[in-house]
């Protein structure tokens, strides 16, 4: 839906841009106006639905703080767009069908028309299990930006299939990952008994603004729906957009990130300064592969048998509490099944839900059903699965993303007084935010005196975001997935 016309009332198409913001860019993007223009278009800044993963973990007090990057635990036997690739080169030539681009950690050059990803960005291809990391900033070659990428898992035998690098294939941002003592950051766009081990991922984002753009007024008014604050200043919009993208990216990467460490805990993926880049396993990768099952049509018997098998001889009846994260199409499938066999389920309230009927609160769109054998299933709409920008494989009949039919059953029960699923954060690094001031500083404004101390001579400032966090599924044998499969 990028750059589409919504209806006959639209005056002009939206434009996309990234990274450094200056007055010329604002003018080209139709975001400034001459002083004498009196009419104002009103724009309500798009709402960001609260992070589902953050709500189900830290929002319910299920966060633990660690002091090391690696963490282990015992288990008893749980405004975006994709960018088109116009050319991909490997070892000096355009990628051929017989090539194994990226093997032995060799660089792949991706030619794209937009500067959309920054250093350290993790890119997912049309088959999203294949991921690569951007090394350094892209450089311009004629009409194209050239990105140097390496296979993100850091393994010598890994490569990106050639069919995913052909012209008009796409890549999208899955997250970002950096080495210790890093200086680089991804960029903002406008419009993550035996022992298990995981490690935290350091994620970053940064945005720049010039001194002139800091005070520029726009032709549109923005309103932050959370605070009610209205503003015509580009700097306010930029801060809101950066925070919105930041939290969405963290939520996505906590679900889809792929573990890249070797058995000894090291990784071969290196950042620009030569230090290792560690990527922790996200929620989906931690679910036991044996608990994944495909389906073509959901039935009540299939659902009950699946959940019974998932908890059989593992969980006591008091612990069989599952949350099913699913997209709009998965919710539709559930609704059809429940109507077909409504007598077998009992609608109840849990700590996730208050009210009754349509008056559900605390996150909304929670519906809990009690089944046989003490199984309780709480449905939660998961917008990540519906996003057509990041989920580009479509159902041949409905035309909706196949990912929207995915049903991820997560066991949020308790183990020895602790939740089975928890967010893990590095001490004092769950959310770091700072600015590097030049001629202007956020909240302070322009420097007016030679005694004003600033960090550099740049006419503007940079704002940085950094987090070091991950997610832990203590018992991966009690979570699973039903995944739609089509011929």
Written description of the protein model:
- The radius of gyration is 24 Å and the shape is globular.
- Strands 4, 5, 6, 7, 8, 9, 10, 11 and 12 form a 9-stranded antiparallel sheet that branches. The chain has a 7-stranded mixed sheet with strand order 18-31-23-19-22-21-20.
- It has 7 helices and 31 strands.
- It is 14% helix and 30% strand.
- The model is unreliable at 5-12, 30-49 and 349-366 (pLDDT under 50).
- It has helices at residues 23-28, 52-56, 211-214, 234-256, 283-286, 300-311, 328-340, and strands at 41-42, 63-66, 70-75, 83-84, 87-90, 93-94, 108-112, 121-124, 131-134, 139-141, 144-151, 170-176, 186-187, 194-199, 201-210, 217-223, 230-233, 292-295, 321-326, 346-348, 366-370, 376-381, 407-411, 414-415, 418-419, 421-426, 432-437, 440-441, 445-446, 460-473, 480-484.
- It has a domain at 287-421 and 474-484.
- It has 487 residues and is of the alpha+beta class.
Q: What's the total number of strands?
A: 31
| Radius of gyration computed on alpha carbons | 24 Å
Q: Largest sheet, described in full?
A: 9 strands, antiparallel
Shape: globular
Distance between the termini: 26 Å
Class by SSE composition: alpha+beta
Query: Beta fraction of the residues?
Result: 25-35%
Helix content: 10-25%
Any low-confidence stretches, pLDDT <50, length ≥5?
Answer: 5-12, 30-49, 349-366
The overall average pLDDT, rounded, is 80
Helices, by number, come to 7
Describe the structure concisely for a colleague.
This protein has 487 residues and is of the alpha+beta class. It has 7 helices and 31 strands.
């Amino acid at each position: 839906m990028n750059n589409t016309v919504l209806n006959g009332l639209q005056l002009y198409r939206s434009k996309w841009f990234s990274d450094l913001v200056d007055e010329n860019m604002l003018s080209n993007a139709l975001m400034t106006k001459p002083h004498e223009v009196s009419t104002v278009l009103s724009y309500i800044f798009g709402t960001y639905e609260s992070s589902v993963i953050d709500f189900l973990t830290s929002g319910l007090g299920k966060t633990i703080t660690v002091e090391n990057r690696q963490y282990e635990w015992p288990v008893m036997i749980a405004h975006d767009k994709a960018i088109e690739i116009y050319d991909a080169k490997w070892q000096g030539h355009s990628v051929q069908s017989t090539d194994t681009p990226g093997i032995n950690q060799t660089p792949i050059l991706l030619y794209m028309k937009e500067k959309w990803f920054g250093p350290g960005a993790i890119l997912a291809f049309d088959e999203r299990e294949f991921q690569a990391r951007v090394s350094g900033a892209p450089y311009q070659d004629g009409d194209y930006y050239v990105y140097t990428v390496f296979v993100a898992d850091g393994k010598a035998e890994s490569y990106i299939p050639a069919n995913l690098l052909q012209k008009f294939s796409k890549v999208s941002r899955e997250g970002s990952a950096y080495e210790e003592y890093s200086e680089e950051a991804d960029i903002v766009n406008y419009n993550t008994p035996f022992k298990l081990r995981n490690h935290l991922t350091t994620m970053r984002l940064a945005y720049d603004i010039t001194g002139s753009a800091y005070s520029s007024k726009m032709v549109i008014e923005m309103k932050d729906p959370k605070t009610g604050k209205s503003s015509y200043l580009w700097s306010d919009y930029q801060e809101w957009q950066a925070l919105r993208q930041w939290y969405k990216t963290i939520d996505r990467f906590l679900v889809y990130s792929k573990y890249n460490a070797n058995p000894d805990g090291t990784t071969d993926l290196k950042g620009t300064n030569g230090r290792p880049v560690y990527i922790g396993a996200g929620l989906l990768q931690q679910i036991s592969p044996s608990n994944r099952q495909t389906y073509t049509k959901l039935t009540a018997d299939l659902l009950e048998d699946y959940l019974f098998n998932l908890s059989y001889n593992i969980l006591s009846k008091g612990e069989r509490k599952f949350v099913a994260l699913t997209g709009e199409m998965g919710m539709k499938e559930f609704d059809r099944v429940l109507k077909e066999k409504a007598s077998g389920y009992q609608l109840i309230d849990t700590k996730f839900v208050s009210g009754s009927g349509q008056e559900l609160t605390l996150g909304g769109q929670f519906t809990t059903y009690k089944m046989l054998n003490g199984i309780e299933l709480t449905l939660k709409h998961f917008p990540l699965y519906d996003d057509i920008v990041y989920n580009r494989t479509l159902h041949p009949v409905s035309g909706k993303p196949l990912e929207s039919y995915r049903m991820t059953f997560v066991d949020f029960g308790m183990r020895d007084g602790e939740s089975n699923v928890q967010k893990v954060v590095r001490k004092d690094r769950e959310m770091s935010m700072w600015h590097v001031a030049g001629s202007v500083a956020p909240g302070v404004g322009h420097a007016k005196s030679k005694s004003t101390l600033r960090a550099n001579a740049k006419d503007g400032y940079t704002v940085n975001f950094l987090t070091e966090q991950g997610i832990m599924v203590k018992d991966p044998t009690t979570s699973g997935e039903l995944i739609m499969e089509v011929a």
